[in-house]
Amino acid sequence: MGKQFIGDWIAPFGTIFIRLLKLIDIALIFKLLVKRISDLKDISSFRNIGICTIILYVSTTIAAIT
């Protein structure tokens, strides 16, 4: 009875928590892109923005999963 209770009532909260972390991850990436592009003075630095964005996305996704 205990395992069924956990599966039915507590597990959905864990799923919601992980989905909220992913939502925050997307918001952080969007904020970073907007901030970086608005501060952009040289077009050639788009490469650095892309690399930084990929690194931030991967690191925050790994943090959210763990």
SSE topology sketch:
Elements: H1 2-38, H2 46-65
Helix pairs in contact: 1-2
Question: Describe it for me?
Answer:
The protein has 66 residues and is mainly α. The protein has helices spanning 2-38, 46-65. The chain is rod-shaped and about 60 Å long. The chain starts with a helix and ends with a helix. 0% of the residues are buried. The mean pLDDT is 81.
Outline of the structure:
With 66 residues, this protein is mostly helical. 86% of the residues lie in helices and 0% in strands. The chain is built from two helices and no strands.
List keywords for this structure.
mainly alpha; single chain; 66 residues; 2 helices
Radius of gyration of CA atoms, rounded to a whole number: 18 Å
Query: Share of helix among residues?
Result: over 70%
Main sheet specs: none
Q: How far is it from the N-terminal to the C-terminal residue, by CA?
A: 28 Å
Taken from the alpha-carbon principal axes, the silhouette is: rod-shaped
Proportion of residues in β-strands: under 5%
Broad structural category: mainly alpha
Helix and strand sequence: HH
Uncertain runs with pLDDT below 50, 5 residues or more?
none
How many strands appear in the DSSP assignment?
0
